[in-house]
């Protein structure tokens, strides 16, 4: 019996590390060293049994008198289950080893150094600030790495995570308070995720994070109570806490970064906290305009701002293309913009992926509408055949205990329609909450009569042309659904070796990821010769019809023309020679099962082999002898293996990396089965679609996707469009029986016996004409041919026809959902009937969607559009990125990371997120896993962000060709931006005054000040970048330009410079400033409107109008264009850039010397008279923006007063900030010397670390880069400190 000796102390993290590793060993395949699970002993080992020197805990004794191993690293590695630490020699294993080493050498010393003094376990003479700084440096590589990774190595916890988490237990329990955890957000998220894992929780229990207040009971360093502290000790501790707070605040400032592409944010004044949720309570009937005559609330509130606007927009018809014109066909010189929505599935709620799609599409739609184009964004919803049927079946079973077969087809379809009415409204409600400016009068559902008629018409036309045909081929089959499924509904689960998976319908887990070898005896061989083959699906050997070898394989040349004997079925299997066989894999011999493998099917076609199907629609075995007959496929797997062993034909089993196809709806293992289905012949249509892109008739953006497009089109296969479901468009095809002895019965694959028709009468007429009989002799069967319908199943075996036992009678097939979706761009407009909408809006302008459905939807729309209408369905395709969670994981209900956009808009508690899981269709086992995911990602729930912040944030994230790792905290940052807009407009309205009247045009009056000219010039640039970005689909460029203008230029600079003007005595200057301010608000709100429709409408409605004829709403107001805003002023920008450079230099110096509450005098040293004149002109602005005292320009050659700190504003101007009399030089020198010593120590440690042998090989590249950056920063800090020391020495 092995024994694991550990410390009983709850904070003994080395022992905790070993215990968690042992837990993983129990949950996995056993300890990595191969022994049994050890017994746990909570005390040191007896001295009589220990080796020398005495082992430190944890220690592992491998049996009495056996090998001793001690130390957390070695013991954990032995206890961790084999394989979970990363396969040996692989990149994953190296990564695990590197992080384990980093935890042992960097994290543990830093964590103990920071924590133990705080607990009174080390000398108080140690500097807590230095210890915390060391911990921060150790956490930095972790923070950077975890920004893009869920765990340190791989997609599940490894030894690396175990080592690092246990190393950080003490800091998280006793040092890192909430503000520090916000600084290290990625590390905190990862830490919480890990400690919530069952194996961690079993050992650690509930890990309570440090709240910022430590009770004496937590200071468990000693059982003996600590003596009372002296006044001097208490004073010293107070200083420590003060230093700690300063350090944490500094770390927070360093970690905060603006959204990508935006300027570094300037220090902002702390905004007042929101007083609470502010709501709009004035009685406003739906559709009536919101009352904005009252006083603006003190702060921005999404609930207040978003109330009542959408019903008014909809009631007024602003979203309809008819608005403002006599008809949609009226000529419009501005052009037409038409886009149809990618119809969301009716299967439930929208997620953030849909929100991204709608944020992008609505911003584009609003931009085009504001430009004056005839604009239509057409809504719709997809019936989602398989997904909807699965959801309703689960609901039916959960609520009534009935299957759909017990209920019956018609009653079941009524349940589906009832469910659709409930869920469909929720989807449309979400779209409206997102502010989507869709024309709801034109909303469509793919099962509506209009669209169903288009589906029937398309099928009949294509069938008549021979583009749609019937064939028996291998398909992806879900035995749970009893239906064929499309490739997009198949998830590929990668396995590295032997794995047990849960499969619907089986009580025990099923083994995958192994390769079973067995022998076939050569027929007629006197020497008992055999051919060994291997397979991952041993049950399919019952359907083997041949063994294949490579024609050039010398091992099998003597077997040409020979056969092997099947041990269970009375047939011999010919040995065939085919180039597809890999001679290097296994024995070089491959079993051939044409009815259950795509490659084998193609080999069978080449060699004329029969295809023996051994599974029915439910996955039970047929056409096999007892005892296998009737067994479920994975029960048969075990039975075949045992039978091979009994006959002495089993040759071995080994781990084998493989991919298991899973149905993403039923989670069943997909089975390749031969099945008669309907297909679309895609070759010619694909060539036309590919040529359209090559010619430039169809643009695909980003252009990188064009290569994928051509690759798919060049290698396209025919498309299986039939599904064995109840919910969907029934296929308008009929299997016919001719009641005439002269006409033989038809078989399924024979196309002559299948007719299509818009009505049964039309189909009957076609059949009568085909066979030359009267219509009354024709019987029609819609759906499959079958023994009950007058025909006979087409033979899947060349020798044995299918029977009703193999394919039991089932209901009529329906069409693949993607078929009706492929018709969407023109079916929603009334095709095949001519209509005004079809003539005006087809072809559409743009198709915007995610790149993941480029083939499944976009390509099929293009192919069907060209084939059925002769026109491309749209001129451009813009493919946005895919939204993932903050850890880069695909959003999945089972992970608990699927986010409802409404939860981001309104906010939701953690319990509220849990409750949503209980109301979902997840299995109970998945619900618990999802709850853990939610708790790790949203420990306090999701804060209220509002629609505008969500939309703006999603568009700001969008970068062409990249996936989006969405962090909800960043969306919250844009809610703060909305608050900034609110406060800025509120201040501006006060500055304008009640009697303000804007001038009829936005043109300047000619008396604008320098700052007026500068802000107009910057506004011109924002207008240019916004229009340019919209045209190029560069949404981050647009959001960055608008964010920067409002925050960094209008709020931070212009409004500050305006305060003394508006409060001054020069009324002419004040009026000029008011007109400029109004123009900034007017144009700035119009710029933002496509992204933030609610807050911009709310603020715009509070502004006075330039003319009485102004449009009633911002969403139908003209979008600012460069021709309207042509106020570019390079001279003003150059002059004001000097003012801003001087301001930045002054602010930097004030921060360096902690002059936050003092207005020091500033002296500007210039290199020439021109710069001096400019500096004099902007000195007043510098005084305002930098909160400086006197701002004076020194004469050329003059020296600055003694006691000034200096900084460069530009190569032509230096800033001297007066410190004499404001600071104590001696005291500052003491601080600086201590700071210099610490910086030198840190730099020396970094240099020594980088100089160690093996550093460039053993340390992760990202850690090396972080070390180099830290060294450069430390050296720069040293130079600044030396300059400051020299300055203060002169002041003594």
TrEMBL record:
PROSITE patterns: AA_TRNA_LIGASE_I, GST_CTER
Organism: Rangifer tarandus platyrhynchus (Svalbard reindeer)
Sequence segments annotated as region (Disordered): 218-296
Protein name: Valine--tRNA ligase
Basic and acidic residues bias locations: 234-248, 261-275
Domain of life: Eukaryota
Keyword Transcription attached: no
Pfam families tied to this protein: Anticodon_1 (PF08264), GST_C (PF00043), tRNA-synt_1 (PF00133)
Protein family: Belongs to the class-I aminoacyl-tRNA synthetase family.
Matching NCBIfam families: PRK05729.1 (NF004349), valS (TIGR00422)
Residues covered by the GST C-terminal domain: 89-228
Keywords: Aminoacyl-tRNA synthetase, ATP-binding, Coiled coil, Ligase, Nucleotide-binding, Protein biosynthesis
């Amino acid at each position: 019996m092995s024994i694991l000796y550990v410390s009983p102390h709850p904070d003994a993290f080395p022992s905790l590390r070993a215990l968690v590793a042992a837990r993983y060993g129990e949950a996995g395949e056993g300890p990595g060293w191969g022994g049994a699970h050890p017994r746990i002993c909570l005390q040191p080992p007896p001295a009589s049994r220990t080796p020398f020197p005495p082992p430190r805990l944890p220690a592992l004794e491998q049996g009495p008198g056996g090998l001793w191993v001690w130390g957390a690293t070695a013991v954990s590695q032995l206890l961790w289950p084999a394989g979970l630490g990363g396969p040996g020699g692989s990149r994953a294993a190296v990564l695990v080893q590197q992080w384990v080493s980093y935890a042992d050498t960097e994290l543990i010393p830093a964590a103990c150094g920071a924590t133990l003094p705080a607990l009174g376990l080390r000398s108080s003479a140690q500097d807590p600030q230095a210890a915390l700084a060391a911990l921060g440096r150790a956490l930095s590589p972790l923070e950077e790495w975890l920004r893009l990774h869920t765990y340190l190595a791989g997609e599940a916890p490894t030894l690396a995570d175990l080592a690092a988490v246990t190393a950080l237990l003490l800091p998280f329990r006793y040092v890192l308070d909430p503000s520090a955890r916000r600084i290290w957000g990625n590390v905190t998220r990862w830490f919480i995720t890990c400690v919530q894992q069952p194996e961690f929780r079993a050992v650690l229990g509930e890990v309570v994070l440090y709240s910022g207040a430590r009770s004496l009971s937590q200071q468990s360093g000693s059982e003996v109570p600590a003596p009372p502290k002296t006044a001097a000790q208490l004073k010293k501790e107070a200083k420590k806490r003060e230093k700690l707070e300063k350090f944490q605040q500094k770390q927070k400032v360093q970690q905060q970064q603006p959204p990508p592409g935006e300027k570094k944010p300037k220090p902002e004044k702390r905004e007042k906290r929101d007083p609470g949720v502010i709501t709009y309570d004035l009685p406003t009937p739906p559709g009536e305009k919101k009352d904005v005559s009252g006083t603006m609330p003190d702060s921005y509130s999404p609930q207040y701002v978003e109330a009542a606007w959408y019903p008014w927009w909809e009631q007024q018809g602003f979203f309809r293309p008819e608005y403002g014109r006599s008809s949609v066909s009226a000529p419009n010189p501005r052009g037409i913009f038409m886009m149809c929505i990618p119809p969301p599935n009716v299967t439930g709620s929208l997620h953030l992926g849909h929100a991204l799609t709608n944020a992008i599409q609505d911003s584009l739609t609003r931009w085009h509408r504001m430009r004056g184009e005839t604009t239509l964004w057409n809504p719709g919803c997809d019936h989602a055949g398989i997904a909807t049927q699965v959801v309703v079946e689960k609901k039916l079973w959960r609520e009534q205990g009935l299957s759909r077969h017990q209920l019956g087809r018609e009653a079941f379809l009524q349940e589906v329609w009832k469910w659709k009415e409930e869920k469909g409204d929720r989807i449309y409600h979400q779209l409206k909450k997102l502010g989507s400016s869709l024309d709801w009068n034109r909303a469509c559902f793919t099962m509506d009569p209009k669209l169903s008629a288009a589906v029937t018409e398309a099928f009949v036309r294509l069938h008549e042309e021979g583009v749609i045909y019937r064939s028996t081929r291998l398909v992806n089959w879900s035995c749970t659904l009893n239906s064929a499924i499309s490739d997009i509904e198949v998830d590929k689960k990668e396995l590295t070796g032997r794995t047990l998976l849960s499969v619907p319908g089986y009580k025990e887990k099923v083994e995958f990821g192994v390769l079973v070898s067995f022998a076939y005896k050569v027929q007629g061989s006197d020497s008992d010769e055999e051919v060994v083959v291997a397979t991952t699906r041993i049950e399919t050997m019952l359907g083997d019809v041949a063994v294949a070898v490579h024609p050039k394989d010398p091992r099998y040349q003597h077997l040409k023309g020979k056969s092997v004997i099947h041990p269970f079925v009375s047939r011999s299997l010919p040995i065939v020679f085919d180039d597809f066989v890999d001679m290097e894999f296994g024995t070089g011999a491959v079993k051939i099962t044409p009815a259950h493998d795509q490659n084998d099917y193609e080999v069978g076609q080449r060699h004329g082999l029969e295809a023996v199907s051994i599974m029915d629609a439910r996955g039970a075995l047929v056409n096999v002898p007892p005892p296998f007959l009737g067994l479920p496929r994975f029960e048969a797997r075990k039975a075949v293996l045992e039978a091979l062993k009994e006959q002495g034909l089993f040759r071995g089993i080994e781990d084998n990396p493989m991919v298991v196809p899973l149905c993403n709806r039923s989670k069943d293992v997909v089975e390749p089965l031969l099945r008669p289905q309907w297909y679309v012949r895609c070759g010619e249509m694909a060539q036309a679609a590919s040529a359209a892109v090559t010619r430039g008739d169809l643009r695909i953006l980003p252009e990188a996707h064009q290569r994928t497009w051509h690759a798919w089109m060049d290698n396209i296969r025919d498309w299986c469009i039939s599904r064995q479901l109840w919910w969907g468009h029934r296929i308008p095809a009929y299997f016919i029986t001719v009641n005439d002895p002269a006409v033989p019965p038809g078989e399924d694959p024979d196309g002559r016996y299948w007719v299509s028709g818009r009505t049964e009468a039309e189909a009957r007429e076609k059949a009568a004409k085909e066979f030359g009989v009267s219509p009354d002799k024709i019987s029609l069967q819609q759906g499959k041919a079958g023994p009950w319908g007058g025909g006979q199943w087409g033979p899947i075996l060349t020798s044995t026809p299918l029977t009703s036992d193999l394919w039991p009678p089932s209901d009529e097939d329906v069409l693949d959902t993607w078929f009706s979706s492929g018709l969407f761009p023109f079916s929603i407009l009334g095709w095949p009937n001519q209509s005004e909408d079809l003539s005006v809006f087809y072809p559409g302008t743009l198709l915007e969607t995610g790149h993941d459905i480029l083939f499944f939807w976009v390509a099929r729309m293009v192919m069907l559009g060209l084939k059925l209408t002769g026109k491309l369905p749209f001129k451009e395709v813009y493919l946005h990125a895919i939204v993932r969670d903050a850890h880069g994981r695909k959003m999945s209900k089972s992970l608990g990371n699927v986010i409802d956009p409404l939860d981001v808009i309104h906010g939701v508690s953690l319990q509220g997120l849990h409750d949503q899981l209980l109301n979902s269709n997840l299995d109970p086992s998945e619900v618990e896993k999802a709850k853990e995911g939610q708790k790790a990602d949203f420990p306090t729930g999701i804060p209220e962000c509002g629609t505008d912040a969500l939309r703006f944030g999603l568009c700001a994230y969008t970068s062409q060709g990249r996936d989006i790792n969405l962090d909800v905290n960043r969306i919250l940052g844009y809610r703060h931006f909305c608050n900034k807009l609110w406060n800025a407009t509120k201040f501006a309205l006060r500055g304008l005054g009640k009697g303000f009247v804007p001038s009829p045009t936005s043109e300047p009056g000619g008396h604008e000040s320098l700052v007026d000219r500068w802000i107009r010039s910057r506004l011109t640039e924002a207008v240019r970048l916004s229009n340019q970005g919209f045209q190029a689909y560069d949404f981050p460029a647009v959001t960055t330009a608008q964010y920067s203008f409002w925050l960094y230029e209008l709020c931070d600079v212009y409004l500050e410079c305006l305060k003394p003007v508006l409060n001054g005595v020069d009324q002419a200057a004040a009026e000029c400033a008011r007109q400029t301010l109004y123009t900034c608000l007017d144009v700035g709100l119009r710029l933002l409107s496509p992204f933030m429709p609610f807050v911009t409408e709310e603020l715009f409605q509070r502004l006075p109008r330039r003319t009485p004829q102004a449009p009633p709403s911002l969403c139908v107001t003209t979008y600012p264009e460069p021709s309207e805003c042509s106020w570019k002023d390079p001279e003003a920008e150059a002059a004001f850039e000097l003012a801003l450079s001087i301001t930045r230099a002054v602010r930097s110096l004030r921060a360096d010397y902690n002059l936050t509450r003092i207005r020091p005098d500033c002296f500007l040293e210039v290199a020439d008279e021109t710069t001096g004149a400019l500096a004099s002109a902007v000195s007043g602005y510098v005084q305002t923006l930098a909160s400086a005292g006197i701002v004076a320009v020194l004469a050329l050659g003059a020296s600055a007063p003694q006691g000034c700190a200096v900084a460069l504003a530009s190569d032509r101007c230096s800033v001297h900030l007066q410190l004499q009399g404001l600071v104590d030089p001696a005291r500052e020198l003491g601080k600086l010397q201590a700071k210099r010593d610490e910086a030198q120590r840190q730099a020396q440690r970094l240099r020594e670390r980088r100089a160690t042998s093996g550093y460039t090989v053993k340390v992760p590249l990202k850690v090396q880069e972080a070390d180099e950056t830290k060294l450069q920063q430390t050296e720069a800090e040293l130079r600044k400190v030396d300059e400051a020391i020299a300055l203060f020495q002169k002041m003594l």
